[in-house]
Amino acid sequence: MNKQQLIDFESKIINHYNNNKLPFLFHLSGGNEIELLEIFQHVEKGDYVLATHRNHYHALLHGLPQDKVEQRILDGRSMFMYDRERNFFSSAIVGGIPGIAVGIAWALKQKNSDQFVWCFVGDGAEDTGNFAEAVRYVDGWNLPCKFIIEDNDKSIIANKKTRWGTSDLQEWPNTCVYRYNYELPFPHARTKDFCDLSETKKILKTDEEYFPKLPQETFPDFNDIEIGDMSYKEAVTQAMTELGKDNTMFIGYNVGGEFGNAMGTLQGVPEEKKLETPVAENLMGSLALGMSFEGIKPVVYYERHDFMLVGADAIGNHINHVERLSHGEFKAPVILRTVVADGGPFYSGPTHSQDFTKVFREMVDFPIFEPMTPDEVIRDYKKAQMAKGPVMIVERKSCYDGKTTTI
Ligand SMILES: Cc1ncc(C[n+]2csc(CCOP(=O)(O)OP(=O)(O)O)c2C)c(N)n1
To answer: Which helix or strand (DSSP H or E) is residue 383 part of?
Structure first.
């Protein structure tokens, strides 16, 4: 597509808006046609392109057919554009996409693939800690990923000076970050005199109609499995060893052999399957999600439930919704493993002993298992192993044997 064709496409979308055809919030691209046309000359067909709420141009330039993009916008997916065949994905959560880009890039490097990840963000996403974590990770591990900051000096309407007290630019490593400046010719959606949604309310469908809920996965009960005589910790260790035979990666901190093996439970997992991460819980979940796009089944270890809360965006907004938002094209077979320090020798005070299971049950649609016995541990991890979508397993420290467990 050339510059004029891009502009013409967005004009058509404005026309749909003026004719009351757009169901709800949408974001227009504009003013950066030349810059994007230049960047997309380097983007290969099989590469991943990850974008934000403002993604129409990126989708078109990565080869999504115009009528498909237009239809998605008419269906309410302006902010949620995706295409599995062309490796195109977006997140409408500011700062939500960089960590996912990192996970994909990690998996591609592992496979010696020559595919590359192009992650587009606005200068608003540049404000976030998520972006800083992702850039540091890609730079440090030299992953095949580039972040492009599309700097219009606006987050909705606030410029950098208003947001940070200075308009000085943050410095990022030029190994993996590229910035271009442009002026957006449109106001942000829902600013004064633009995107008056009072008319569209009349044609509003329900959340379920726009984004049909997926049926919950069902699993066999595995009651016929002989468990034998073992402790809770031995059962978890055995379950981890079994999982380690699949195409899994064990992600988190204190997972590696020299770092404690997740309370000793990962002794039977090959070292090359353990990825010791920074203490960056949101990055951990996002990494896992990105890896899962490339066929890996990640097991993310949060050593206390309290810490999982720090990674709740990756879990609640991304891992939980990716399949539903993409009408099943992208799946997230991620196992989220956590431990609640519910009293006994491991009680460590508020912020180290909380149980957020109820909170997560409200937040996510996928199964959450709470094994209380060795039998349940083995059975629940079997279900997690076969799951096609995400699963959370909440272990309880009170079930562990205090004498043999060190952390
Ligand atoms: C985590 C999060 N916080 C707030 C918002 C609301 N929001 C939507 S777009 C936007 C501004 C983003 O600015 P920028 O990243 O520079 O992108 P631009 O809109 O300029 O393309 C905000 C704050 C959001 N979507 N996600």
So the answer is: helix 374-386
Pocket test for ligand 1, best of 55, 79, 155 (most atoms within 8 A of CB): 155
- C-alpha 96/C-alpha 404 separation (Å) is 39
Rounded Cα–Cα distance for residues 236 and 233 (Å): 5
Distance (Å, rounded) from C-alpha 106 to C-alpha 302? 20
Q: How many CB atoms lie within 10 A of CB 156?
A: 11
β 391-396/368-369 pair status: parallel
Task: State the CATH class of domain 3-210.
Answer: alpha beta
Number of residues in the chain: 407
Residue type, 241: T
Asked whether 90 and 50 are in contact (CB, 8 A), the reply is yes
**Count of CB atoms situated within 10 Å of the CB of 321:** 17
Report the atom number in ligand 1 closest to the C-alpha of 95: 1
Separation CA 229–CA 231 (nearest Å): 7
Task: Please write the tens of the pLDDT for every residue from 256-278.
Answer: 999 999 999 999 999 999 999 99
Residue 404's pLDDT band (boundaries 50, 70, 90)? very low
Backbone angles phi, psi at 357, to 5 degrees: -55, -45
Same fold, 3-210 and 232-400: yes
Name the CATH superfamily, with its identifier, for domain 232-400.
Answer: Thiamin diphosphate (ThDP)-binding fold, Pyr/PP domains (3.40.50.970)
| Structure-block tokens of residue 327 | 């009408």
How confident is the model over 94-146, as pLDDT tens digits?
Answer: 999 999 999 999 999 999 999 999 999 999 999 999 999 999 999 999 999 99
Rounded to two decimals, the pTM is 0.96
Q: Are strands 297-302 and 248-252 parallel, antiparallel or unpaired?
A: parallel
**Contact present, 156 and 188 (Cβ < 8 Å):** yes
Compute, in angstroms, the gap from residue 192 CA to the centroid of ligand 1.
17
Strands 274-276 and 297-302: unpaired
Closest residue by Cα to atom 9, ligand 1, is: 156
The ranges assigned to domains in the chain are 3-210, 232-400
